[in-house]
Amino acid sequence: MYDNKLRIAIQKSGRLSKDSRKLLKNCDIKINFQKNKLISFSENMPIDVMCVRDDDIPGLVIDGIVDLGIVGRNVLEEEVLKRKFKLEKISFKILKHLDFGICRLSIGIPTEKKYCGIKCLNGLRIATSYPYILRKYFYKKNISFKLCKLNGSVEVAIRAGLADAIFDLVSTGEALVSNGLKEVKIIHNSSACIISNSKNFNLSKNNIVKTFISRINGVVKARKSKYIIFHIYSNKVKNIFKLFSECEKPIIYKLLGNDDIVSVHIISRESIFWKTMEKLKELGAKSILVFPIEKMLE
Ligand code: PRT
Ligand code: ZN
Fold it and tell me: Residue 94 phi/psi, 5° resolution?
């Protein structure tokens, strides 16, 4: 029975948990999440969801305890490097890069300190929760450093006298600034991804994975796409096509009782910014509406 059910590990609570749950929901995988339960079951698909700490997700997938995991590439890379360092066998695949959990691993130093390139960090003590990623980068650059391994509160390490620099996750950069630090070097870009154990799944699991990934593709594509409607004089329609580099052929409707004006419907694969709408207006479009698209199956 268990072998025919797909097990997916997601973060229990933290920055990825809301988006991971939303992704499952948008794929119409209904999970009855229960507080403090390790495993929750899907009501409508043969899927179980394991809610765990994000740091455990790569290991659970690599060790084959779960089939899929949703995790940040930063955590994945750190676990992979750790296992490689211990000469352990690793097998996993990234099935899909996701559009949430976007951040970077960067070096931060006190704002008042001068930064004159990565070499000026030589010999410093650096606080981080990601020693293996840091070590790999510094080794490549032939720079030595002293490690201060912390599992949290990395950004206060310098003020606490524990380190000269930090290597930590950054998204807006506010945490760095509020701790009197500046970002001087991005070393690793990250976002969430779906990983699988690269073992071959049996046929029924394989079908569930295929359906899941195809639905995710639809959700991600839909999220980026917009449905645009506007009115325009029919002799001006051609002018607006060059605005949309990647879009479906537009649908053009005649307006009742008006032969000169048409209604144009376009699915745009790109985000529509105010600038695009203002340009549309300049080119003669009126009554411009932009709608989000929920799902898309191609
Ligand atoms: O309890 P558990 O171990 O599961 O969670 P956790 O506390 O280890 O991780 P969590 O929930 O903080 O982050 C989970 C994942 O979200 C990370 O591994 C990244 O992949 C991703 N992510 C995206 C981030 C951020 N953005 C982020 N900003 N993780 C952490 N941060 C931290 C950052 O280090 C800083 O301290 O958030 C703080 C604010 O960031 P700024 O730059 O926006 O000010
Ligand atoms: Zn964690």
Answer: -90, 115
